[in-house]
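Colleagues,

For the teaching module next term, I've prepared a clean inverse folding example: a structure given as tokens, and then the sequence designed for it. I'd like students to try predicting residues themselves before seeing the answer, so please don't circulate the second half yet.
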């Protein structure tokens, strides 16, 4: 019997293991107002304890609850004891980066410095609550410091940045690492203050974005390296990382980008993050993205930077998105003659201009904005996130259900310039495929039943808009079918679809130049992005065995070899799609 796409994505129709999790992260900003857990609200005005203990939307209880408090001055041990009466059959593990740091210092002087830093800047604290009958402790504490500023080799509290967490495992099931983190910001803030020297970005993204991505990638690598050495991360391990990851909004021309999302999309950078580590091939992913649309920066909720105690209550009837700020700014142009900046170029003054244009709305929403002391890194952003790492072979078998549709932000919470972020999710891990693990064998098996599926998204007859791409040449059909066989596993829920439909690509995904009748859409046969002809020149094409071993396939600038041979080295009959 033929299988439909709906059947393929229905997790209840396939065997496997199901897990239900609840996440909460809240940067307390070392606020004296938030020294007690009684001052931290749950969702919908409920007490924190009640929100943590409430069942999921389907009436079931979470298998694990993970809470992280960056810049905290709470007594996390007391909170753990208090919650122990609410979760009598669960194991509660409270962790403190300050306590872990003090234990690992070789001298009393360094330990004293770390203790003073924690009191001055706040502590990175986590609390893991899990079903003791299902999960067992899998490893020692996962802990590391992330250098922000150093003076004479000593980390300066600005505030103290670190990550701390714990690993658990299910007998015969998956292994999970729950890690809370507070990433550095000083270097990123200085980077955003600087003018981008690049004035043209026709062939690559702006240098500011690339440098910002590398800063976040360094933090992700530190977490991954420490976790790998602590809990022996393998192909059956999922690492959850949440907290203040200090991702920022970048304005480039008329578009906005989120640094962390751009890291996820950068496959060479993802490979560099785990290069040299004894790990299976894997990637970092966004947990809270319920669809491809929510992977855009404009769709992310604003969790920073708010007034800790505004004079008037913020008028937020629904979630505030980064795109809402940009939309308000576009309605009132106070600088009509000011240059908007070229696409792909970072201009620091653009951030202040945008905030001035949207100043009235920002004040109504409770966003913090001081004209005299504004810096680009204080532009509204979504730094408080939940992400995960998994081996590619495991991620292909993972599917997610987000009962609440994604992140839930409690905009009513006061006392900090961040807002608490909640996330409920259900994870399904399908059993391993029975066929051989050989990639060639898998591709051969998948080609046999292509007729059970529709044509490529955005290029079939069922699309809402006619495709602007040229018709496929008969000799290129085999190439498309081979590519479709390779990408078919991406239909699984929770996987990032890596072929951008024409209808979703108004601009080139590399140079951001709008498509038109003269500037045609093309697709890179490696990453699937929709690019223009200039960002996929013929001298970068090469043969890809799984696409077409006989002729070169189109590649974008990011995926082409570092040293491309000349165009004459390739046959002239390449597939131009």
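(Answer key — instructors only)
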């Amino acid at each position: 019997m033929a299988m439909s796409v709906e059947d393929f994505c229905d997790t209840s129709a396939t065997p496997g293991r199901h897990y239900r999790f609840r996440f909460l992260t809240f940067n307390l900003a070392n606020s004296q107002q938030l020294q007690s857990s009684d001052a931290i609200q749950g969702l919908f005005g409920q007490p924190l304890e009640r929100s943590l203990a409430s069942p999921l939307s389907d009436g079931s209880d979470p298998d694990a609850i993970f809470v992280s408090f960056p810049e905290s001055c709470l007594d996390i041990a007391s909170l753990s004891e208090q919650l122990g009466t609410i979760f009598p059959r669960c194991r509660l593990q409270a962790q403190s980066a300050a306590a872990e740091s003090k234990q690992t210092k070789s001298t009393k002087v360094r330990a004293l410095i770390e203790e003073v830093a924690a009191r001055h800047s706040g502590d990175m604290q986590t609390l893991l609550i899990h079903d003791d009958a299902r999960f067992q402790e899998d490893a020692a504490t996962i802990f590391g410091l992330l250098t922000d500023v150093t003076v004479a080799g000593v980390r300066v509290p600005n505030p103290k940045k670190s990550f701390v967490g714990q690993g658990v495992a299910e007998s015969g099931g998956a292994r999970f690492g729950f890690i809370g983190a507070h990433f550095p910001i000083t270097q990123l803030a200085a980077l955003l203050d600087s003018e981008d020297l690049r004035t043209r970005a026709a062939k690559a993204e702006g240098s500011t974005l690339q440098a910002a991505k590398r800063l976040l990638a360094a933090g992700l690598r530190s977490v991954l390296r420490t976790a790998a050495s602590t809990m022996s991360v393998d192909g059956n391990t999922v690492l959850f990382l949440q907290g203040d990851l200090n991702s920022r909004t970048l304005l480039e021309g008329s578009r906005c980008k989120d640094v962390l999302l751009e890291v996820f999309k950068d496959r060479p950078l993802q490979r560099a993050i785990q290069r040299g580590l004894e790990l299976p091939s894997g990637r970092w992913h966004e947990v809270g993205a319920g669809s491809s649309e929510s992977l855009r920066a404009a769709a992310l909720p604003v969790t920073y930077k708010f007034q800790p105690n505004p004079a008037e209550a913020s008028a937020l009837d629904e979630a505030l998105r980064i795109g809402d700020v940009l939309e308000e700014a576009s309605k009132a142009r106070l600088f009509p003659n000011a240059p908007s900046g070229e696409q792909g170029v970072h201009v620091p003054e653009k951030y202040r201009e945008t905030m001035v244009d949207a100043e009235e709305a920002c004040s109504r929403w409770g966003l913090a904005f001081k004209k005299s002391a504004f810096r680009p890194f204080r532009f509204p952003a979504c730094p408080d996130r939940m992400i995960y790492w998994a081996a590619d072979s495991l991620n292909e078998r993972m599917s997610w259900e987000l009962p609440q549709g994604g992140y839930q932000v409690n905009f009513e919470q006061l006392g900090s310039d961040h807002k608490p972020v909640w996330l409920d999710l259900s994870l399904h891990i399908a059993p391993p495929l029975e066929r051989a693990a050989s990639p060639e064998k898998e591709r051969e098996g998948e080609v046999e039943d292509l007729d059970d599926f529709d044509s490529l998204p955005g290029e079939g007859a069922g699309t809402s808009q006619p495709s602007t791409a040229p018709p496929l040449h008969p000799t290129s059909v085999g190439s498309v079918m081979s590519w479709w066989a390779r990408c078919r596993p991406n239909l699984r829920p929770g996987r990032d679809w890596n072929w951008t439909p024409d209808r979703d690509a108004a601009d080139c995904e590399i140079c951001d130049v709008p498509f038109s009748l003269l500037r045609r859409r093309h697709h890179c046969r490696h990453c699937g992005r929709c690019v223009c002809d200039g960002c996929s020149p013929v001298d970068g094409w090469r043969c890809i065995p799984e696409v077409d071993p006989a002729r070169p396939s189109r590649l974008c600038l990011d995926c082409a070899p570092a040293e491309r041979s000349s165009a004459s080295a390739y046959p002239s009959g390449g597939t131009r799609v």
